[in-house]
């Protein structure tokens, strides 16, 4: 199985039965717990297209991590796919976000943002981690979503 196929299969399995502000809080707090257990210097963000539902900046993170979280979550919301998967697809086609008319100031196809998909509804929000290498950011988000399921 290729990296793209594995990421697509993983994303397809991460479908929640429902999502609310309470779910966003539980997900965000779970990510804080996971990150604090390993002393990870990350920013955690859960948001919809127009509203932040949860945000935490853990010790060792920086304002740059906030900017990366915003840019990665924009990619996940725009493409309705994890930012790591979008990056892999673009690299496979030798394309960039700029080729799609998406400026680097607002979009980053680096791992760490995963859309929150609800069964029968589709993408309703995104959860993002920034502060680690991109694959580790992605894995932390996936771990928390699996725990939520």
TrEMBL record:
Q: Name one Pfam family in it.
A: HbpS-like
Coiled-coil spans in chain:
none
InterPro entries given in the database record? PduO/GlcC-like, PduO/GlcC-like_sf, YBR137W-like
Matching NCBIfam families, A to Z? PRK02487.1-5
Query: PANTHER family annotated for this entry?
Result: PTHR28255, UPF0303 PROTEIN YBR137W
Name of the molecule in the record: UPF0303 protein
Give the organism the record lists.
Answer: Gemmobacter lanyuensis
